[in-house]
Amino acid sequence: MMRNQRSRRWLYGVLAALGLVLALAGGYAYWQGRQADTAEQTVTVQLGDVEKTVTALGSLQPKDYVDVGAQVSGQLRRVHVDVGDVVKKGQLLAEIDPDVYRARVEGDRASLRDLEAQLARQQAVLRLATLTAGRTRALAEIGAASHETLEQDAAALDEARASLASIRAQIDKARSTLSGDEANLGYTRIYAPMDGTVVSLALLQGQTINANQQAPTILRIAHLDVMTVHAQVAEADVPRIRPGMPVYFTTLGDARRKLQATVRQVLPTPEKVNDVVLYTVLADVDNRDRSLMTDMTAQTFFVLDAARRLPVVPLAALRPVGEDGRHYLARVRTANGVVRRPVTVRLASRTQAAIESGLKAGDVVVLPGATGATGRDRAPSRRAGAGSGGMLPPGGRP
């Protein structure tokens, strides 16, 4: 009986030890699997777009606008429009007190009438002087008039002619003055120079305008169907910007919406902000839906180059080969383990690369730092050639 008890104890001990060994082996296998999973970080190649861009901050302004000002001084008697009103060319916008200018016009007309009366009188004097000088000349020919009388009548005729010329010159001057004062009277009524929308109103009804030193702006009319992005581009980037280049931008109000535009002009005169030289680049965008408004902030992206619908991987997953900036090695996981495969890059941004050859959508690329399931890489595949025609800046990274 004692022998049977010893046998059972021995059997239980063996079974317990065997269970412990199996548990330790299972835990070790599980731990090894977890280590392998966490060590190997991969990314699946997908088709996508890669762009090489220059970014800049800008603001939106109407492409076509005009600041409507006053050419004469006086009290702004009436403003017929308000901000947001749509106006037509030739529409009356505002009126300045016309009393002073109307009085000047009436005074000019009276002076002109007086000069015209003087002209008629002087014409009569000239006719009389002409007749007198003729009679005296005839009498002098028969000896009935002295030479002195002849000279006096001739001088009187010349004087009458000069006076007539002087009055005519005064009439021309008076007419010119009248024309100017009539124009100023007309300037008291301000009309719209173009079709558009009133986007700002600088002066209010009842304010006094002083146009002697500078033409004050009363309001601004803008054509809002086309807006212009005024982007501030750093001097290091502006040599790469050209008219006709595609550009897109987003606004603070809708960062997910990309609005397409085209570069129209690079202004040659820079602006210096905190010792940084910035050039203004203009790009026009359609705004017939009126979604864009004046002075909106625009995050602008000038597209220098783009690769569309190509396999895309993180740039960090590639190791450069050589110094041409086009050829790389990628570590690709296959059924036979991780292999090193040469690839050709078409275009790279700061974070992503568009692959021209060597990878296809669905390939699994091992990121740096991963050892792979086999513990070592296999040799490159002969079928995955390096290709040609890539494009990257010198050094392989933008």
From TrEMBL:
Chain residue ranges for the region called Disordered: 369-398
Q: Name one Pfam family in it.
A: Beta-barrel_RND
Where composition is biased (Gly residues), the residues are: 386-398
Question: What keywords appear on the UniProt entry?
Answer: Cell inner membrane, Cell membrane, Coiled coil, Membrane, Transport
Q: Which residue range or ranges hold the Multidrug resistance protein MdtA-like barrel-sandwich hybrid domain?
A: 66-219
The principal localisation class reads membrane
Q: Which residues form the Multidrug resistance protein MdtA-like beta-barrel domain?
A: 227-299
- Start and end residues of each Multidrug resistance protein MdtA-like alpha-helical hairpin domain: 112-178
Q: Note the SUPFAM superfamilies from the entry.
A: HlyD-like secretion proteins
Q: Name one GO cellular component term.
A: extrinsic component of membrane
Stored InterPro entries: MacA_alpha-hairpin_sf (IPR030190), MdtA-like_b-barrel (IPR058626), MdtA-like_BSH (IPR058625), MdtA-like_C (IPR058627), MdtA-like_HH (IPR058624), RND_pump_MFP (IPR006143)
Where does the record place the Multidrug resistance protein MdtA-like C-terminal permuted SH3 domain?
A: 312-369
One GO term under biological process is: xenobiotic detoxification by transmembrane export across the plasma membrane
Give the location in the cell: Cell membrane
Task: Please provide, alphabetically and separated by semicolons, the GO molecular function terms listed in this UniProt record.
Answer: efflux transmembrane transporter activity
Q: What protein family does this chain belong to?
A: Belongs to the membrane fusion protein (MFP) (TC 8.A.1) family.
This protein is called RND family efflux transporter, MFP subunit
What's the source species for this entry?
Gulbenkiania indica
Q: What is the lineage of its organism?
A: Bacteria, Pseudomonadati, Pseudomonadota, Betaproteobacteria, Neisseriales
